User: What shape does this take?
Amino acid sequence: MSMKDKNIALFVSFCIEEYGAAKGMSGEQVLDLFSQYGVTDYLSKCYEPLHTQSHQWLIEEIDDFIGIRKNKKS
Assistant: This one.
């Protein structure tokens, strides 16, 4: 695994933990939510700009991303 891949994996893990803490969700619940709406793929593909943001901004960005995906499904 390359250093960049490791950094991306750590970033995604960080986002899962932070989102769970902010929303009162377990890691498993967050993983299910992220899988349902493609959040993990988004975080991985957009790592470069996203990893420079604050954790609060990331929580809001993830909420916005999920909201957009929910609207597309309905």
Q: What stands out?
A: The radius of gyration is 12 Å. The helical segments are 3-23, 27-37, 39-45, 47-50, 55-73. Residues 3-73 form one domain. The chain has a mean pLDDT of 95.
